[in-house]
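Course exercise 7: structure representation. Students receive a sequence record and must write out the corresponding structure in token form. The form below is the worked example handed out in class, using BAG domain-containing protein (202 residues). Read each field label carefully; the graders check that inputs and outputs are placed in the correct fields and that the protein name is recorded exactly as given.

STUDENT ID: A-19
EXERCISE PROTEIN: BAG domain-containing protein
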Amino acid sequence: MTNSITVKWGKRHFKIEFDDYEQQLEDTTVGDLKQRCHRLTGINTTEISLSAYGAVMNNDKLPLGAYSIRPGSKVIMKVHKKPSDTLPDPIAPISSNEAATLAKLQAIQTRLSSQLIPDINAYEERVKAFGVQSGDEKAKKKLLEHGIYLGEQLMQILFQLDGVMIEPGFETARQARKNGVKTAQTLLDRLDGIKGSTKNFV
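STUDENT ANSWER:
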């Protein structure tokens, strides 16, 4: 008979080994088992709830035998988090297909951060500099045209993000695309504000 029990947490299964399990059974308490679970998962013992055979193991001082735990038994672990706790639930590993999708999104994000954001920053400085000068209409027109060009580039980014297909279950990729869209939309709003300020130029 195996000297171990299995702890199931979400989709994860942990095998916990015991030396001379039968002899230790009467000395191993629910609290001891929670400590073992804590070392494996990093979850605070006060937030761990264990159950077996339909019974909640709610007395940390009782031995495992009181809940009919024997070698080969399966114990269910649940986590009761505090509202402020940010520890994530178990997350399935990213598949190679999702990794490929993330690579596409990263390429778009790289263009956004390394090219368009610096261009918009530079454009904003040009607009500010133009505002304190007696600029002519021709220069003002060129400034507006460049703002329109930057807006078109941001729209292109949004179209590219929209064109990346996110398969069901690709939650990391879905969040990455959502973040990219939010960044591009924020930049569009900022760009509109910069272009709008040129209307006050004489």
